[in-house]
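Data availability (excerpt). The following record was deposited with the supplementary files.
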Amino acid sequence: MFKDFYSQRGDAVIISAEQASRFAKGVAGDYNPIHNPDARRFCVPGDLLFALVLERFGLSQHMEFYFLSMVGADTPLTFRQAASGDIHVTDEAGKCYLEVVRSGETTFDGTAVDAFTRCYVAFSGKNFPHYLKPLMEAHGVMFNPKRPLVIYHSMSFTLERLDGFAPDLALSRSSLEVQGKRADALLDFTIESAGKSVGVGSKKLVVSGLCEYDAGEMDAIVNEFYRLKAAWETA
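Predicted structure:
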């Protein structure tokens, strides 16, 4: 499903900066500058790793994703399943970047896996400005406008069933816990199909380098987001 966003070298998956950036913008609608190929602190989108895990190991009823470290461009990654069923994404030195814990039934139906992957990634790509801006404004804080840094910490979900559903995700609750120069953002979501609830989930983000909220600075960042979005969509 997402073969255009990585290359295979033996058992290793290689994701270039260009592939990662194209996934972020073209699939997730995510214009976070940390995913730009020329970014000083470039990292592969966590949602691309999420998509590749589901592509390889299927969709389980309950899954927990823990993003342990940022993945740089062209890092050889190995996706392995332990005897427990847990999944680990590691590099050649054994460093773990993503750990996945899962339980319940698993489906490998391509239509179901693709539908869930795409609707989650589309939801997740709305972190900024859709979800984070109102939270930061309400708490009077924002990330450093010169070095905005929002890190994917973890995500989990539980599905009541895996068959015959056309999933749609919607934000149900959001909160921001400020701790000095950083904050934890929690985004809870519902999973529906044909207007009926089929599951719930939650995503945690870490916002670093906090400073006092500046409406002018934030407006400039939001305007740049939509400028980049328009430029990508018309390219």
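Summary of structural features: The mean pLDDT is 93.
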